[in-house]
Amino acid sequence: MDPQHPQAVASKLPTIGPKDPFVKVVRVLLPWFVHEISIPMTFDQLRTSAAPGHKIRALVDHLVLNVTNPALLNALLTLKWHFSTLQAGGINETRAYACEIVAWRFLHRISARDAAMFCLYELPQHRVEVVGDGCHPDVTEQSALLPQYRGPSTSPPVVNQRFDLLRSVLNIRGSRGSDSSTEEEDKEHSLSSFAGLTGLEIAAVADCKKFLSQRVVQKVVDGIWKGDIVFWESLTSTTKKKPQFYNKKTADIFTRLRVPRYIKSFEVVFIATFLFLLFRVLVERNSAQVTGFEVLLYIWFTAFAYNELSEFLDTKSIFYAVDLWNSCDIIIIVIGTAFFIVRVVGIYQDDPQIIDTAFDILSLEALFMVPRVLSIMSLIPYYGTLLPCLEAMVKDFVKFMSFVAVIYIGFLGTFTLLARGTFGVREMSWFLVRVFFGGSALGFEIMRDINPQLGPPLMVIFICMTNVLLITSLICIQRDAFARVIAHAREEYLFVYSVYVLQASTSKRLTHFYPPLSLIPLILVRPLRLFYSSEKLRTTRIYVLKVTHLPIVGAIWLFELAHEQVRETSTFSSMGPPMLRIQPPHLTQTPSSSSAHLAEGPKAAKAFTSDRQVGNGKVKQQSESTIIASETDVQDQVKELSGQVKDLSSQIAMLTALIMAQHAPIPQPGEDEDDEAA
């Protein structure tokens, strides 16, 4: 049988059950990509070529019609990460591209609301043992979409989570042999480090930039950013985190505090106030006593550090490391801690010099605080594109300067030994630094002082290598790095935007206190853990949150009230199957039913599976007649339209020739080519 024949391809398609675990889904899909994608190709070649493109389309059709497992998207993105880590280029890179293509084409073929359910499906974790009253012993402040696992032996530390993920990705093996052997492999390598991650989080961690830049995925991200998709329906001690569409009539207004748009907006206000206090303390520079503004600065700094620690613990270390601004926050905390320590030592010893050193250290905060305030500008496409460009250029610069340092140290040792008694190591190092950054005249002035015979030729060689060869090479490397990123400007911006949104929405805490109000539960509520039960403690936190954040909620309510007057529709209010796209009848769902599926979260997987299975039966009965009728109508319309276009083109050509013959000047050489190209 011809391997390109549809039946031959269908015989190799993976079989995935609706209740298969995540590990099995990954291992069933892995052999297909290994066997069917066997030729190295670029991303564009993979999308446009006939043979691999036919195989990918066959797989997508199979997944849309026959697979209802909610972990399908998570498995495809995990396999993309797996192939990307195996090899920098070649066949594995092509397979990684294929995984992304299959993932987003699958989402395009289903309704947008079902696509949101797949993107936000959180991989289940192992269930914990129940206590005497039948409740899970997990703290309700960390209640997740599914029961969490906190086993003492198998739960990896937070710091090593990325390492565990990489190890799990590299050790993925396809299913083979009998079911018993597969079960033993599942027990041996369960991919437990992926538990609790959604499809969007895996895409962000695995650098699936092409997947995240797709319109159907960005609709989900925009829905989370604007608050059309929420994870908390109410602020009660019994509520659970689950993705759902926001219903203004039934939802608790205090849940709007968890909307990423408002979290980031008030974060910018907090950091701007932090920067104002910083400049006020530096301008006063009171060495005799601690002023009121300095006390406020300490409060703001403590709230900032505590907020970063909470964000690190809530959003997982792997996801926290993806955002570039978090590195800036860590540096701010380090500098602030150093200032506080030196300031305390200076006051204790009553040493003005140490106190001045403390304020000098605090002055370094401005280098990072000002860009941190303007981090909100990364949501603008222009600045959101420049940020990845600068990041890539800095990485290449650091790599190149390591090579420059080797050459510099070699010349420094030679010149210092030749100039013994004339220049010391410190003087010679500064001379060479000045020569490296363009001070060639200085090198020619001191070359005979270094050594009359060897000084001139060595200095000429050093100047030629630094000012001509190395500097030119560095400029070329930086230009290539900038061009490499800017060529995919839209993907880079949408990736930065997606990470920005997901980082603000992945926390599993029900009560989110805005800084500096976050210090109130830290000081007043957290010590009560020694006396109160977890349920009563959570109720107390909810009460404190509502009392302290009532003005903020009022501001959010006024903003949304005014915004509703100018906003046409919400992101998902009228979202259905894309227009002008032929889809199977069972994929066109009503908004109410789709909304119910997402509102129920993973618990709706069974209902979602049964609905799609019923639809599959209808497709099998009606597909032949529907497809034939659709193809006939489309062919008739295309023939009629092509005939009209030909007639119109001939008339336009005759009219153009007549006008040019009467009025047009004689064309100059090269004009025909330009007109044709235009």
From TrEMBL:
Claim: Amino-acid biosynthesis is one of the keywords in the record: no
Keywords from the named record: Membrane, Transmembrane, Transmembrane helix
Biased composition (Polar residues): 587-596
Aminoacyl-tRNA synthetase keyword on record: no
Gene source species: Hyaloscypha variabilis (strain UAMH 11265 / GT02V1 / F) (Meliniomyces variabilis)
UniProt xrefs under InterPro entries: TRP_calcium_channel, YVC1_C
Transmembrane segments: 262-283, 290-306, 318-346, 358-380, 400-419, 431-447, 459-477
Entry superkingdom: Eukaryota
Record-given protein name: Calcium channel YVC1-like C-terminal transmembrane domain-containing protein
Region annotation Disordered: where it falls in the sequence: 587-624
Pfam families named in the record: YVC1_C
Lineage of producing organism: Eukaryota, Fungi, Dikarya, Ascomycota, Pezizomycotina
Residue span(s) of domain Calcium channel YVC1-like C-terminal transmembrane: 272-562
